[in-house]
Input
Amino acid sequence: MKASTFVYPWDVNGDPEAAARIAGLGVQQATLASAYHSTRALTPRHPRHRIVTAEHAAVLYPTDSRWEGRALRPYAAGDWAPGDAFGEAAEALTGAGLEVHTWVVLAHNSRLGAEHPDTSVVNAYGDRYPWAPCIAQPATRAYLVDLAVEAALRPGAAGTELESLGWYGLQHLHAHDKTGGVPLGDAGMYLMALCFCGTCREGYGDQGLDPDALAAAVRAALEPLWQGAPDDGGWAGVEKLLGAGTAAATRAWRDDIARTLQETAVRAVRAAAPEGFQILLHADPVTYHVGANPGVDPEHILSVADGVVVPCAGGPDLLTPFARAREDAVVAANFPVVAAMGGSPGRLTADVARAKESGASEVRLYHAGLASDGDLEAIRSALAGL
Output
């Protein structure tokens, strides 16, 4: 099975041994960040630093003229990834014999939300999520599609993996996160992800819902959860809390918005890409799920993209709907392999075997730059047996 590891440019640039060390893991590909969100990252082997603080979402390469005069545009990185950081790292990784694919984070950008608050998801209480651009807004959609094209098609890249190309919600950590005091569960998280910006309010209206009444219904549905009642979870839990008809109408609006954005972005990348350029989406087979791996319909997304990258930290179950939808699609099982961050590099051989049985055709490893030496040795051992 083909294996790839995720990497940041700052893991490679300035470390003359990094590219060879990554290739030595036994991977054939490096999935290298070209557009990424804010983060604080460990670099445990770098000769010049140990901590990199990416202060805001940024592109890790020089942008072109397509952004001139536009209010919504990507931000340049600061001193954590100066110049063409992606290009420099890609050249080193290619020189070590690795195929390089871009790793593009799209609808996750706190600085965009801070500087353009009207672009953000607004929940039923009126709270804005600055990290979560509302993908229903026309200007935001245009920005995301153009960013997908520019960040995906970097010189030297043979393909791309598009992350967070869909709805975002409450789930993602933000600064020093203090949101876990009440366990909302799957259904509660869906209700907290419903957007009530002007565009989404009109969209609910097109589905026959009164947006003010819907917001009130969402708040009422959430009240027992705030008081500690259990969340039944799943779509049945949403229907129980909100009512089946109302729940279905909200999902119809949101599913259509996500689906058409994914179609538009993938087709735009395809139109601009050289022949053979591979396009994968980070995805979840449950359409109402939100976040870095947004929900998609497996048959639909695999009629548009070449494949998917699927989170497998909780096991391989999410792989099967994609594997059944299209036999020749790339279905990449994504495993966390940093032990101190909850990964299980020592179990990788068994995890990969289970993923293969569930239909995985490739493996993704998160993340070579963050892993300890012990983690890397476990990865080398596991990949040697594939």
